[in-house]
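REQUEST FORM: STRUCTURE PREDICTION
Request ID: SP-0412
Submitted by: Lab K.M.
Chain count: 1
Length (residues): 316
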Amino acid sequence: MLRKRKNGLSAQALDNNMMRLKVKNAYVSGPAELKHIMSARQPLSDKRANGSVLIIGGSKDYHGAPVLAAGAAYGALAALRSGAGYAKVAVPDCILDPVKSLSSDIIAFANGKNSIAFDSRIRQEIGKADAVAIGMGIGRSAAAGRAALNIIGRCGSSDKRTVIDADGIRVLSMHRNLDIGKNAVITPNQKEFALLAGSAPEGNGLSERADSARRVAKEMHAVIVLKGHTTIITDGNRVTVNKAKSSALAVMGTGDVLSGIIAGLAVNSRGTYEAAVAGVFVHSSIGDMLYKRVGAHILASDIANNMPEFFRRFGR
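STATUS: Completed
RESULT:
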């Protein structure tokens, strides 16, 4: 049965239909997971000591996604006072100026011309980063696919804490034997998961989705975040579910923000599974908080902008 974690603190009670579904060793996410990975920022630490996040994304057609993700990572960790002091965004040169104009709080640099590239600068930046998120808005060109494949492989070879999203998942689905290391988090929606798994889950029930996600996570030695109104997080053994109370997050760009949150939390968490569980809870909770205020009329950037208020509840 689904269980609230001991020391419960779960603010998200499942309805009776969900409670009747049997999901082996599954827990319901809640504030406990976030409190578990929080730590106070050391008073004499500098931005470098507090970790860095590198977001790699964007293309000629999609310029907003990587900025939203970087803003999420930076804002979340700044509010927590326990995370990244640095957030960098690598985007193609064709969208560098508009990306810079969207946020003065991140460092953006050119990577490729019309799509991301695997060049000497990106190899250097991957080496310096504590966590990397890739895939949001990169597009489906052959050049972007080759670059993403090399970047994911580079991160995997060094066991970098890596969040793979959007078109990065599509690249993975075509290269299932790629070594992605032991610290990868993959964040598919239902359609992306079908690509990754080779088929959609057998049935739309929670139990079927959880079993499919657990199987793929075990095969890929990664954490799977199967997104949906009820999101499933699993490393192949442990399973945590998070049920949103509203449909506020059903808007473009919110998945990119989630990737940024998870990458930001991964900088100082015990492991990527813990960061993924806490990140999904944060993301969902802020969506529900905003839904109470303005209904289903939010933008993805609203999630990032409201993180400080949400994290203030958990400050130490």
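NOTES: Residues 22-36+46-308 form a domain with the UDP-N-acetylmuramoyl-L-alanine:D-glutamate ligase fold (CATH 3.40.1190.20).
Reviewed by: T.R.
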